[in-house]
């Protein structure tokens, strides 16, 4: 049955990007609509070439070997009582609770997921296909929660341009569609984007082309063509974070290798013979810290304490905030407070002072002063129990090995020690620091983006791989399939020999040559150099503001889309918010930790989604005086557009 034609005067919103961020915004629109919009008709257009819910990054059609890096109980798409928002809390299941409901027959999923769901416990790491199913279910639930007068249209295309005056309806042009979508409001929820190569990477790519080499620039690993990485040949890898873990999995198990566990639990890797040899290095020279492998217990640190709304208000009132000078000392003190609160309350035998006395002196000490360090030295006798963020960020600083084999042994010892510590509740101050990092991230959203160093530091401490992945890495190292390069790794192009060469500070005088180089990381978010046509056009038209050239030079930041902190409206280069255009996600200077989050952590993305949803609905309500000739009851909740949409009628 063909649905009735929609009147051109029906209010409409176009959301570009239907992955987790777009889905989260949809959930907040559904939650706030009864209060702010009532039963007025509305068309919601979702534009994304990938199916809604998971989007590109969390799509179902990727390797079943790829996991999430959070446990099932630590993943949710729903608000709870911890989230500071003006709209209503609408609780929903975490990934673990959703899987439990599936097993109980309360939620139906495709049969192919039954085995994975049956085996998934709350502390397990789900495969990405399973997360895709959860996100799809969240999307369908959010659509079902919309008022019956709201129609959702899915456009499986790419948006390439937005036009229209500040005071009029916007036109959203889609690839391959001759006429634009008309919208009262447009929201960009684009997620992670590809970017043009910066100068150094472009030179390496051109060098590889001249010499018949393989160069894989930064990309989402599941999208990379790894077929050129040949069995047995050395491959240089720059980057030791989660993109490397995915690369490691796809080039080992993904090529037929297997693991066996010995009586002591140690893994042994059985090669298939199709693996290359991965030589991996980075600035730190070590992988991200393992996910913590024990349950939270006991008293949590009362956060925020030294970096909360009051301190952020004071920072925002000051001109010319410098991150290292003004913000970092407060973060350092906040993380230290969480660490020592846990140490004193859970492990008092390792301290020489009672907590109230320490807390009073700690609160009075200058965050960057010598008095604080003296206090910690006096109250915490074992240096291993003291928090040293600089040492954490530079774990191999000053460490030198006589040769590459000694480096391999040393790095295996480092990883083994990290796994032991992150799975031992005797080191529970680490968990307190993790919780403080989440709190800090939530406060930094108000200040705006603080540059790539902070995001990298946060990910290194708080967003590392599951412990089992590091056990696999150790097995691969013992098997010689992975070789560690060390800290401060540099790669040069040797024109004379026609190879890439890697060196590090950890083994002076040694180098590794290879005919393949992989940049194991996502492209930096950037407005000016993104490959996304829509975002580049906004920048070219002056509708998107990015950090000034002086700020970019001093901080080394990528150019990000500037948005209003209050509601995510896009700012122009004079700082004026666009009344009809919004943006959420990693390409903005209000980028948050992720589109989904750990429950009960006041997730920044949930707060942003709620504020934006309320701004959208308020705008539409105030302009709802135009009569709508089409009966609200005649418009289905989801309406297909045959030439470019795929929607299931409800």
Automatic annotation (TrEMBL):
Specify residue ranges for compositional bias: Low complexity: 630-640
Q: Which residues form the FAD-dependent urate hydroxylase HpyO/Asp monooxygenase CreE-like FAD/NAD(P)-binding domain?
A: 14-192
Stretches for region Disordered: 575-601, 630-650
Among Pfam families, the record links this protein to: NAD_binding_9
The record, for SUPFAM superfamilies, names: Nucleotide-binding domain (SSF51971)
Q: Return the protein name.
A: Adenylate cyclase
């Amino acid at each position: 049955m063909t649905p009735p034609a929609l009147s051109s005067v029906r209010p409409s919103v176009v959301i570009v990007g239907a992955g987790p961020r777009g889905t989260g915004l949809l959930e907040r629109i559904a939650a706030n609509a009864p209060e702010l919009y009532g039963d007025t008709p509305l068309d919601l257009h979702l534009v994304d070439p990938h199916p809604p819910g998971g989007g590109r990054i969390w799509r179902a059609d990727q390797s079943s070997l790829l996991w999430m890096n959070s446990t099932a109980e630590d993943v949710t798409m729903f608000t709870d009582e911890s989230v500071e928002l003006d709209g209503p809390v609408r609780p929903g299941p975490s990934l673990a609770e959703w899987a439990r409901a599936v097993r109980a027959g309360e939620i139906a999923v495709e049969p192919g997921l039954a085995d994975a769901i049956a085996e998934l416990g709350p502390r397990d790491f789900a495969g990405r296909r399973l997360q895709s199913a959860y996100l799809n279910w969240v999307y369908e639930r959010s659509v079902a929660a919309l008022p019956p007068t709201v129609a959702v249209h899915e456009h499986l295309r790419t948006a390439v341009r937005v036009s229209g005056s500040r005071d009029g309806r916007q036109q959203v042009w889609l690839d391959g569609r001759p006429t634009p979508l008309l919208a009262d409001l447009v929201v960009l929820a684009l997620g992670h984007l590809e970017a043009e190569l910066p100068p150094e990477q472009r030179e390496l790519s051109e060098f590889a082309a001249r010499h018949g080499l393989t160069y894989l620039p930064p990309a989402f690993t599941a999208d990379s063509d790894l077929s050129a990485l040949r069995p047995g040949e050395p491959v240089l890898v720059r980057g030791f974070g989660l993109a490397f873990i995915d690369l490691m999995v796809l080039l080992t198990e993904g090529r037929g290798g297997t693991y066996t566990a010995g009586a002591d639990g140690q893994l042994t890797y059985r090669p298939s013979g199709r693996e290359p040899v991965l030589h991996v290095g980075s600035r730190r020279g070590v992988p991200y810290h393992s996910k913590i492998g024990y349950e939270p217990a006991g008293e949590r640190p009362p956060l925020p304490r030294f970096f909360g709304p009051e301190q952020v208000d004071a920072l925002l009132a000051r001109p010319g905030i410098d991150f290292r000078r003004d913000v970092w000392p407060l973060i350092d003190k906040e993380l230290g407070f969480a660490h020592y609160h846990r140490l004193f309350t859970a492990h008092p035998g390792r301290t020489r002072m009672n907590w109230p006395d320490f807390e009073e002196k700690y609160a009075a000490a200058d965050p960057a002063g010598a008095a604080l360090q003296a206090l910690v030295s006096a109250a915490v006798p074992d240096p291993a129990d003291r928090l040293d963020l600089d040492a954490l960020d530079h774990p191999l600083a000053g460490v030198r090995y006589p040769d590459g084999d000694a480096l391999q042994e040393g790095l295996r010892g480092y990883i083994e020690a990290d796994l032991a510590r992150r799975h031992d509740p005797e080191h529970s101050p680490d968990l307190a620091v993790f919780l403080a990092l989440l709190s800090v991230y939530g406060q930094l959203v108000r200040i705006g983006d603080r540059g790539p160093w902070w995001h990298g530091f946060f990910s290194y401490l708080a967003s590392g791989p599951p412990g089992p992945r590091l056990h696999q890495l150790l097995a691969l190292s013992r098997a010689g399939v992975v070789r560690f390069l060390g800290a401060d790794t540099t790669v040069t192009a040797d024109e004379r020999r026609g190879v890439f060469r890697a060196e590090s500070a950890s083994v002076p005088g040694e180098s590794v040559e290879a005919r393949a180089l992989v940049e194991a990381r996502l492209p930096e978010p950037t407005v000016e150099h993104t490959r996304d046509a829509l975002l580049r056009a906004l920048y070219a038209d002056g509708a998107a503001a990015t950090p000034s050239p002086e700020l970019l030079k001093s901080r080394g930041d990528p150019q990000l889309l500037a948005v209003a902190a209050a509601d995510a409206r896009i700012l122009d280069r004079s700082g004026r918010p666009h009344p009809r255009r919004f943006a959420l996600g990693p390409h903005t200077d209000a980028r948050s930790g992720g589109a989904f989050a750990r429950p009960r952590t006041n997730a920044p993305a949930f707060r942003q989604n709620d504020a934006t949803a309320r701004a959208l609905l308020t705008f539409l309500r105030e302009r709802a005086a135009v009569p709508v000739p089409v009966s609200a009851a005649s418009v289905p909740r989801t309406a297909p557009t045959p030439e470019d949409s795929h929607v299931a009628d409800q």
